[in-house]
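Ops channel
N.P.: pipeline sanity check, posting one input/output pair.
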């Protein structure tokens, strides 16, 4: 894919190994990764900007100044943190933009541990109750992905 075919900007909260961010960065114009750990070696594409730190800090100091169309939330998996990350991203994402939440359909009790999915599965339910101008679907594949489109 050449650069003229690349569209949009992608933000990923919770980069981990960097494989997802590296893959997505190849099909968008610009991408941002945020994680509390050092930049993964897997991130090679030159359109990736990496921020080591907390999603709250990024959301407050940088996110308001970025036009973006896609976001993937996979950082702290507690319900409170997931909702806070979603609220921050939803406020700034372009109309028509897509937000992906990871680990929202754990099917095994062990997955509810704080080191895995925790209680972020509650997030899509709260989003449906709190926001009306969106489309939302959760794919029931362990551990689950929820896709939200801002209308």
């Amino acid at each position: 894919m050449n650069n003229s075919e690349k569209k949009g900007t992608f933000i990923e909260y919770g980069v981990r190994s960097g494989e997802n961010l590296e893959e997505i960065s190849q099909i968008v114009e610009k991408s941002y990764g945020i994680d509390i750990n050092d930049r993964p070696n897997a991130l090679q594409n030159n359109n990736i900007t990496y921020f080591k730190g907390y999603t709250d800090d990024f959301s407050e100091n940088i996110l308001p100044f970025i036009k973006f169309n896609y976001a993937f939330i996979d950082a702290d998996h507690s319900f409170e943190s997931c909702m806070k990350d979603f609220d921050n991203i939803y406020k700034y994402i372009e109309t028509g933009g897509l937000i992906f939440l990871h680990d929202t359909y754990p099917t095994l009790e062990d997955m509810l541990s704080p080191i895995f999915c925790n209680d972020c599965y509650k997030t899509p339910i709260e989003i449906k109750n709190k926001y009306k101008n969106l489309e939302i679907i959760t794919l029931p594949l362990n551990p689950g992905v929820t896709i939200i489109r801002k209308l």
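N.P.: looks fine end to end. The chain has four helices and seven strands.
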